[in-house]
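Researcher: I'm preparing a figure for a lab meeting and need a structural model of a single chain. I don't have an experimental structure, so a prediction will have to do for now. The sequence is pasted below. Please return the structure as tokens so I can convert it later.
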Amino acid sequence: MMLYLTGAASSLANSPEAPQIDVSKSLGGYISSSVVPNGSLNALFDMISLTTLKNKPKELVGLGLINKFDYAVSNVELKIVTRPDYVGKFKVAATAVGDDYMMEHVANRYSEPMQAEFNDVDFYRAAVTGEIVVPAVSGEVISIQPFDINVEVEKGGMEGTMDALVRALSSDLLYGIRKLSNTRFELFSKEDTLVDEPITCIAVGTEGVEINFLGEYKNGKNNTALVADTIVPGQAIGIWLQREIVPAKFSNEELVKMHNDGVVVEQEEDVEFLITYDIPNDSGEGEGENQGNSENEGEGENESGEGGNQGNAEGGDENQETGDNDNQNEG
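Model: Understood. Here is the structure written out token by token.
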């Protein structure tokens, strides 16, 4: 499964080479032979500038998803892994593509296709907010359950307790932490998995630390769109990816003043465009139920386990169906 830019001058049905590398011209029409570069969906949209924040336009790109396997894949689903506090909000529409590898074409990035229905496919990783009520003392050990996270506090006090939490989770493979204030933090999952039931969290210390969790550990949103029941070898699906800017935390007057004063606020919004699909048992990929899953965060990697295989494809010559979109906000 490969993602390609659109806007080619000719059809892939006539020639396997139909390059089109200009992202600004990826507005539908013929699917090109130019692969969406690995990890660079950040290049598909412009930086969020003062003008963007004020006018809040909807921007659009058209992509083509082609099954490059020699077997059909099924249950092709799409979701966008994001966060509720991001100003860039994404919607997706899937559209049928004929044997000529042509989809609808729009005039510019701010137009909307006539034959497309956009869906909210936001997915939030599981998370919970914690608040340090009574800080730990030097040498105290904090255990966060049910995650088996153990935190050794080197320096007591509020700052030392927060630093210890951040340090302990900075290298954890499953969980991460985001500092929200001097006393509050967010504990979140690094995996794109759905928590079936909300989880109650507790923190226990060897001395007198007190940490309250505000709510339960859960996914705030779990929206997924079924792109196709089945995609046979060589078949293509058209995908429209639309970004809309939601109201910023600054008023228009504040934004103008910040612009005049030369103030720049930089923030990266790391958004993953994730497509999953099922591979048939007789595909030769392994035994059990196979699932292809692309996260596009670096080098190609394949993982397999008992009872099923999950392939992560992130290289230009392998399965590549997702990208990270790093929106940088500038005021």
